[in-house]
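ok new one. same drill as before - structure tokens go in, u give me an amino acid for every spot. 145 of them this time. try not to just spam alanines like last time pls lmao
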């Protein structure tokens, strides 16, 4: 094979590798995390806030899901009562990729006819680097009969 053809083949190979790297970095085409930035492919969301009334109290349990492709370490979930500003910082265990865990439950005093909205925020102190830090809130409304 002449040297000139070898050179052309090498250039084409380099272009293909660069194109593949660009596609991977920008679109995650080969299963890697999107963006190719400093995050590690972890993404936490609040899947649900469970509210169980027990007489004059309610047990509030946030369920946090890791929708990313990498495991997440432990974090704190913030639970905020929107009308009063009352706040809990709830211990939340490590979460494997694709799994959902219950955070530490909170006890909240309620009375009949009371309605309230809660804002639950996963990883409030940003202990876990995430591919999306803007999807960590869930607002839940409840009416206590
Ligand atoms: Ca997130």
């Amino acid at each position: 094979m002449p040297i000139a053809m070898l050179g052309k083949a090498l250039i084409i190979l380099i272009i293909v590798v660069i194109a593949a790297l660009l596609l991977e970095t920008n679109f995650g085409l080969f299963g890697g995390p999107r963006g190719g930035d400093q995050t590690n492919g972890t993404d936490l969301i609040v899947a649900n806030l469970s509210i169980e009334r027990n007489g004059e109290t309610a047990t509030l349990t946030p369920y946090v899901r890791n929708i990313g492709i990498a495991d997440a370490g432990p974090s704190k979930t913030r639970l905020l009562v929107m009308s009063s500003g009352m706040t809990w910082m709830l211990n939340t265990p490590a979460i494997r990729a694709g799994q959902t865990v219950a955070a530490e439950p909170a006890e909240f005093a309620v009375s009949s006819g009371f309605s309230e909205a809660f804002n639950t925020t996963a990883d409030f102190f940003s202990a876990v680097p995430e591919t999306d830090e803007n999807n960590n809130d869930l607002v839940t409304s409840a009416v206590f009969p």
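Residues 33-38 have pLDDT under 50 and may be disordered. and btw The two ends are 84 Å apart (CA to CA).
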